[in-house]
Amino acid sequence: MSAECCAHDGHTESEAPQRLWQVREIQLAALAGVLLAAGFLAGWLGSGTTETVLHLLAAATGGYTFVPGTLRALLRRRIGVGTLMTIALIGALILGQFAEAAMLAFLFSISEALEDYSLARTRRGLRALLALVPDRVTVLRDGREATIAPSELRVGEVMLVRAGERVASDGTVRAGQSSVDTSAITGESMPVEIGPGDAVFAGSINGTGVLTIETTATVAGNSLAKVVRIVEDAQHRKGARQRIADRISRPLVPAIMILAVLIGGLGALLGDPATWIERALVVLVAAAPCALAISVPVTVIAAVGAASRLGVLVKGGAALETLGSVHTVALDKTGTLTRNSPAVTEIIPADDTPAERVLTVAAALEARSEHPLAAAILAAAPNPVPARNVITVTGAGLEGVVDDKPARLGKPGWIDPGPLAAEVARLQENGTTVAIIEHDRSVLGLVGIRDELRPEAPDTVAALHAMGLRVAMLTGDNTRTATALATQAGLDPADVHAELHPEDKARLVTQLGQRRGVAMVGDGVNDAPALATADVGIAMGAMGTDVAIETADVALMGTDLRHLPQALAHARRARVIMLQNIGLSAAIVLTLVPLAALGILGLATVVFIHELAEVFVIGNGIRAGRLRPLPGTAAPERVAAATIPPSDEADGCTCCPPPAADVKRTVIPLSTNQK
Q: What was the pLDDT predicted at 6?
């Protein structure tokens, strides 16, 4: 129980033992239970004095787990459920109800111990991620191998990671080829092939080769440590329902104390004072909002920790609740539905222009651009001679000077394709992005660039639809290309929104979420306005991206899109469990208080029911920490090896109209090894 609720001090999570019987509070509660049972046995045997002594010892032993903390909290002017239980315990002892006092101390102490243990256990599972860092690290210093502790690792140091070893910290591969297992971090079980220049993250397991890695972060500041820190912070953040529970429980405690005083005082004036004071003590226990206060926090902690094992970072209870109530999912195209590895697939020159000339002019204009399409063109034409006076025309393309003549590269509509209009239509209907190249005010040709759909995208969209979610696609690409890719993914063309600027995406997200909650899935940087506008922003492939991890409400650490419906289903289940816990906790209080005030239930019975309900709420909340497979979908590890559909541009394609007879085409085969 948090200090706000029970106002008692206990062990911290980091101090919690690994086994239940090792918990100090459990040991004291067990001893109190033994003394309580022994007291009843002594009474049954006719030894009243022994019974009283044993019950007093049981009350003292059980009360030791919460009374000292309550008194310390009172000195800080903080009251909580522990305050009510302490008053009830002392009152029962004053009235001579030693057995009832012992029963209260025993049951309350054991429920508190179980609660602390359950919370510590869920947090320990997250902290165990840090154990993925090896105990020793091999580094190269002055040309020699040296073994050091991970804490001694410095940025810029060169690590030597052999086959089967874990990577101690984030870094960049300088030499070697291998495959690494990142399942503990991203939730994706398929190994990733890496080589020189590729990034590798702490906790990854090296496969078959030997890697030389230059570190880019210390062990304390690497991506693994960031994940643990952020999720731990998120577990403390409150959602709407947790805030509701707090708003109810905090004023409820003093209100209960006032109610008990009124019951005891007025009852003493009208009847037997001892009877009504006893009833007032029972009301104190019956109305204690202990289960209500813990109902949401235990669920949030368990669910957020479990999501991290799935490779999903959820930023606290508010994000978890919102994610569980989403009805519309808006997906960015590039990098979310597609692989974010665009490649040149076709070069179609106009008239007698050589294809190489088209690509040369295009590469000259894109030489210093950081746009993803520029990377595709430069990969096909490396080492270009940069154009002069290059200007970016927002939402249209580039213009500059190549060979002392004006040149432009841009999308259809900004540049008239002229005789290549039919080819533009064919490529766009095929899901290919078209760039028109113009030189000296004449169209040189077209460059077709295609970013392949993720193989798991259709399964993901189908799973989202099966959950009753509306799925929309937002993209800055042209409508024909966007619609073609959306159709392949299983999206309704009516839910495709194309040719959007960043501010357009943000505006559209607002429209989509007017009636029901909307989640925006993007890369965390280019889609920042839309992510911020959505009810919940989800960053895709956030591992190693500080901006995405820090700013998004939810971050998918890996690139397997099927983690999205899994995360949504997990959040939905956690939200249901929250509602169950709040409903049960409220029902218990509303039922027990009148029965206690009327004298129908005694102190021992109320204590037993109340603490049994708290244990049930804790157990129900812990269920949110279990990950369940999404019905009707294949596991990521099975689908990750799926073959990539053949390119529509491959020879023998019969799904597209034939090109015009007077148009020359250069077809560049798509690589099936694009990352």
A: 43
How many distinct structural domains can be found in the chain?
Answer: 4
Identify the active-site residue in 116, 181, 332, 648.
Answer: 332
> Distance between CA atoms of 151 and 48, rounded to whole angstroms?
62
pLDDT of residue 647: 34
Look up 272 and say whether it is catalytic: no
Beta strands 517-522 and 536-540, pairing class: parallel
Residues 517 and 629 placed together within one structural domain of the fold: yes
Question: Could you tell me if 256 and 284 are in contact, meaning their C-beta atoms sit under 8 angstroms apart?
Answer: yes
For the chain, what percent of residues have pLDDT higher than 70? 78
**Stated pTM of the model:** 0.66
Count of positions (residues) in the chain: 675
In a domain, 583, yes or no: yes
For the chain, counts of helices (H) and of strands (E)? 23, 23
Q: Is the pLDDT of residue 244 over 80?
A: no
Domain end among 109, 132, 155: 132
Structural domain span for residue 74:
1-132
Verify that 113 and 94 share a domain, yes or no: yes
CA distance 254 to 77: 12
Between CA 565 and CA 226 the distance in angstroms is 24
Residue carrying structure tokens 């239930």: 601
Beta-carbon contacts of residue 363 (< 8 Å; ≥ 6 apart): 377, 378, 380, 381, 384
What tokens does 104 get? 């209260």
The residue with tokens 């460059």 is 447
Structure token digits, residue 198:
């590729």
Contact 621, 295 (CB under 8 A): yes
β strands within 405-485, DSSP E: 405-410, 433-439, 442-450, 470-474
Selected residue with higher pLDDT from 160 and 653: 160
Which runs of E-coded beta strand occur in 294-441?
312-314, 326-332, 343-349, 388-393, 397-402, 405-410, 433-439
Residues linked to residue 391 through DSSP beta bridges, in sequence order: 399
Structure tokens, 626 = 């279990």
Contact present, 585 and 617 (Cβ < 8 Å): yes
Task: Note whether 480 and 419 are same-domain residues.
Answer: no
Do 60 and 180 fall into the same domain?
Answer: no
